[in-house]
Write a structure and sequence with these properties.
By secondary structure, the protein is an alpha/beta fold. Helix content is 45%, strand content 13%. The chain has 12 helices and 7 strands. Strands 3-2-1-6-7 form a 5-stranded parallel beta sheet, sandwiched between helices. A two-stranded antiparallel ribbon has the order 4-5. A hairpin with a 4-residue loop joins β4 (156-159) and β5. Belongs to the GPAT/DAPAT family.
Length: 273
């Protein structure tokens, strides 16, 4: 979820993956930091918090960022993801989360697709994305724009009476580490495991180790984003409250500017009368 983990040398880099032939037809890949250039999912949770929730929820999430980062680095990746899911999702209507996932998130995800990883992923006959992010949040983009056949992600709890997210996750919990491996074994079966596994961090090693070949995607500031015309579906831009990807710095600038913008708008309204 955050971007401070040391790179792994257990698996060869993605650049070493040669052309996928007919007998290497299934691919399982992580999302953040692997198929996407950024390995932080924070901006996408911020988008859900603001677009499906409110500016206040987004502010609470932003103020929680130091705690989330500290938890991720020094305690548990799974716990950090549980916390960010609770802050971002608790009390939101499922239909509002789904609407943001379909209409708002794709244009931000599309700018962040890593070309070299996608080229390997796209050549697979059967393509599965396995991620710790909530399925409800990533599935529309991953299936429609990246061409994935299946998304294995963290499943959120929903109150059946209100059809709102509780903020908690369903068992077995956040899909990281060994849970990615178990989810992959369940999806493929032990006799037909993926030919290629692609990840970007140590917690991906579990699922990569059961694939016939594993490749690491290392952080690279010069990584080339995939042109939008290479996506599986034409990107249609929808209106949203935010114009720029709300990473922590951009989000902070936005909230610092927000009171000034409000005062300025009132001043202009008064001037026009």
């Amino acid at each position: 979820m955050f971007s401070m983990k040391k790179p792994s040398t257990k698996f060869p880099p993605i650049e070493n993956c040669q052309e996928i032939s007919g007998d290497r037809h299934s691919v399982a890949a992580d999302l953040d930091g692997t198929l996407l250039i950024s390995n932080s999912s924070f901006p996408y949770f911020m988008l859900v918090a603001i677009e499906a929730g409110s500016f206040l929820r987004g502010l609470i999430l932003l103020l929680s960022y130091p705690i989330l980062a500290f938890t991720y680095l020094f305690f548990s990746e799974a716990l950090a993801i549980k916390l960010i899911i609770f802050i971002s999702f608790a009390g939101l209507k499922v239909r509002d989360i789904e609407a943001v996932s379909r209409a708002v998130l794709p244009r931000f995800y599309a700018d962040d697709v890593r070309q070299e990883s996608f080229q390997v992923f796209d050549k697979g006959k059967r393509k599965v994305v396995i991620t710790g992010s909530p399925t409800i949040m990533v599935e529309p983009f991953v299936k429609d724009f990246l061409g994935a056949d299946k998304v294995l992600g963290t499943e959120i709890e929903v109150n059946p009476m209100t059809n709102k997210a509780t903020g908690f996750v369903k068992k077995p919990g956040v899909l990281v580490g060994k849970w990615k491996k178990l989810a992959l074994l369940k999806e493929f079966g032990e006799d037909q495991l993926p030919h290629i596994g692609i990840g970007d961090r140590e917690s991906d090693h579990d699922f990569m180790s059961v694939c016939k070949e594993g490749y690491m995607v290392h952080k690279n500031k010069l990584a080339i984003p995939l042109p939008h015309n290479r996506l599986k579906t034409p990107l249609i831009l929808h209106g949203g409250r935010l114009a720029r990807r709300p990473d922590p710095l951009n989000a902070l600038i936005f909230y610092l500017w927000l009171p000034f913008g409000f005062i300025l708008s009132i001043f202009r309204i008064c001037q026009s009368r």
